[in-house]
Amino acid sequence: MATGGPPAPSPPNLVTKVELTISCENLMDMDFFSKSDPVCALFLYTPDSIWYELGRTETIQNCLNPKFSKKFVVDYYFETVQRLKFSVYDIDNDSHDLNDCDHDFLGEFECTLGQIVSNRQMTQPLLLTNKEPAGRGTITIFAEEVTDTRVANFEVSARGLDKKFLRSCDPFLEFYKKSESGWQLAHRTEVVHNNRNPVWIPFCITLRSLCDGDLEKPIKVKCYDHYVNGSHELIGTFKASLAEMLHAGCTFPAEFQCFNEQKLRKGNYKNSGVICIRRCQMEKVYSFLDYILGGCQINFTIAIDFTQSNGVPSSPNSLHYTSPEGFNEYLHAIWAVGHVVQDYNRTKMFPVFGFGAQIPPSSEVSHMFPVNFNPSDPFCAGIEGVVQAYQQCLPCVELWGPTNLSPIIKHVSCFARQALHQNLAAEYFVLLIITDGIVSDMDQTRRAIVKASHLPMSIIIVGVGAADFRAMEFLDSDDHLLRSPSGKAATRDIVQFVPFRKFQDNRVALAQSVLAELPDQVASFFRAYKLKPPNLTDVPETTQ
């Protein structure tokens, strides 16, 4: 081995963010009494030979030619081959699991991110798993480099929309950007039912998606009347620039008349309604990295399931049984997630709690006890300290039950609430719950999660063993906001559930899947509360 000189420098990891816009045409119709309800999921092929889900679009009801408004933003490394797979499914129930037998597979397309970037826009046939064509279905992928992270915040209403025969209307809006290939969908609002004077929920659109950052570039807005069968009827259209919309909120709303070309020839036709931009405000957006570089700390709490359903720890069949190699599923999850999260906390001190066991000296059942048995100082030093405390705790407790999650969620919520009252983006709390069973206090857990959704806090649940985890998937409400038993909705999705059995011994893939949603949850929370990174001088400019 040669010596005598400095080692060759490693090539820098130059990363560019790329936004991908997806649409499909001629999808297979898998439903008897309606059209398919498609969703597109994006997967990345990891170095460990596993397809890891990066995200998925919204589900569009009754549509064989969907244009998805939700974008994928991915990191593009020039020096790395990044294999991607776009899988399209017909969603037939509320299950988040794409392998659910009720969901119909509509086809997939594999390529590299480099191919997409070099083509900028590509249309390819969808294939079945046997590589046969998925009917006449095609997928179109459009790529743009992310260089401007500014957003426009909108509050929009309408008045006097056209009334339909024997019914009012169920309006929604679509915003389109002018591109080289035509008008490209940038955003779709929710449907407001039975209302000719709707007020839509406030929303934001990136300037990149809306107008390529050019405030004078024309934007097309379409107003539709929603029909359940997917044959939405156009109410009217108008065009305006973002500069014109930005006048809203200064002294009065910016108003734009909607016109329907088919009605323009009528002599008494005035318009099909008026769209009111009640507020349009442009702002700089800070990323997850901006907040971390600006001094935000990730406070990581671990909660471990010590209920009887895990099995007697001395038995090789127990989930708490430590193999001769020194591992079990609980330890795998702690190592995989903890080693990533600990880098974002300067102290490397983590509180660790157990639940569902009889604890010494009273043998009372506890649903939240420090695994080091020190209530005044439940912290462990680093992930190594967490592992050591867990291993020392296990022989001292009697596995019991039931599986109650609400106490530990409420406990961490208290600290997150205190941090929020400081009105700084200085702390964010992550609760990792590792459990094998069905939640016993589901109503209380739902209520606790809904309350926690208002706080700087996220909950990660890793399900170990072979139990039925459909209830956990319900808590991980990616396609709809979780509601408490009283019907109160969460303000955002803060739960990420991952079944350990999908990853087994692959720590890297487990950590990627478990932590996939965390950066966006952190950044979106602080942005919603308009909290800037605490040390702005340390944060580089990220927008123009």
UniProtKB/TrEMBL annotation:
<keyword id="KW-0539">Nucleus</keyword>
<dbReference type="InterPro" id="IPR035892">
    <property type="entry name" value="C2_domain_sf"/>
</dbReference>
<dbReference type="Pfam" id="PF00168">
    <property type="entry name" value="C2"/>
</dbReference>
<dbReference type="GO" id="GO:0005634">
    <property type="term" value="C:nucleus"/>
</dbReference>
<protein>
    <recommendedName>
        <fullName>Copine-3</fullName>
    </recommendedName>
</protein>
<dbReference type="InterPro" id="IPR036465">
    <property type="entry name" value="vWFA_dom_sf"/>
</dbReference>
<dbReference type="GO" id="GO:0046872">
    <property type="term" value="F:metal ion binding"/>
</dbReference>
<dbReference type="GO" id="GO:0005544">
    <property type="term" value="F:calcium-dependent phospholipid binding"/>
</dbReference>
<dbReference type="Pfam" id="PF07002">
    <property type="entry name" value="Copine"/>
</dbReference>
<dbReference type="InterPro" id="IPR000008">
    <property type="entry name" value="C2_dom"/>
</dbReference>
<dbReference type="InterPro" id="IPR045052">
    <property type="entry name" value="Copine"/>
</dbReference>
<dbReference type="GO" id="GO:0005737">
    <property type="term" value="C:cytoplasm"/>
</dbReference>
<comment type="function">
    <text>Calcium-dependent phospholipid-binding protein that plays a role in ERBB2-mediated tumor cell migration in response to growth factor heregulin stimulation.</text>
</comment>
<comment type="similarity">
    <text>Belongs to the copine family.</text>
</comment>
<keyword id="KW-0472">Membrane</keyword>
<keyword id="KW-0963">Cytoplasm</keyword>
<keyword id="KW-0965">Cell junction</keyword>
<dbReference type="GO" id="GO:0071277">
    <property type="term" value="P:cellular response to calcium ion"/>
</dbReference>
<keyword id="KW-0677">Repeat</keyword>
<dbReference type="GO" id="GO:0005886">
    <property type="term" value="C:plasma membrane"/>
</dbReference>
<dbReference type="GO" id="GO:0030971">
    <property type="term" value="F:receptor tyrosine kinase binding"/>
</dbReference>
<dbReference type="InterPro" id="IPR010734">
    <property type="entry name" value="Copine_C"/>
</dbReference>
<dbReference type="GO" id="GO:0005925">
    <property type="term" value="C:focal adhesion"/>
</dbReference>
<dbReference type="InterPro" id="IPR002035">
    <property type="entry name" value="VWF_A"/>
</dbReference>
<keyword id="KW-0597">Phosphoprotein</keyword>
<keyword id="KW-1003">Cell membrane</keyword>
<keyword id="KW-0106">Calcium</keyword>
<dbReference type="GO" id="GO:0038128">
    <property type="term" value="P:ERBB2 signaling pathway"/>
</dbReference>
<comment type="subunit">
    <text>Monomer. Interacts with ERBB2 (preferentially with the tyrosine phosphorylated form); this interaction occurs at the cell membrane and is increased in a growth factor heregulin-dependent manner. Interacts with SHC1; this interaction may mediate the binding of CPNE3 with ERBB2. Interacts with RACK1.</text>
</comment>
<feature type="domain" description="C2">
    <location>
        <begin position="133"/>
        <end position="256"/>
    </location>
</feature>
<feature type="domain" description="C2">
    <location>
        <begin position="1"/>
        <end position="126"/>
    </location>
</feature>
<dbReference type="InterPro" id="IPR037768">
    <property type="entry name" value="C2B_Copine"/>
</dbReference>
<keyword id="KW-0479">Metal-binding</keyword>
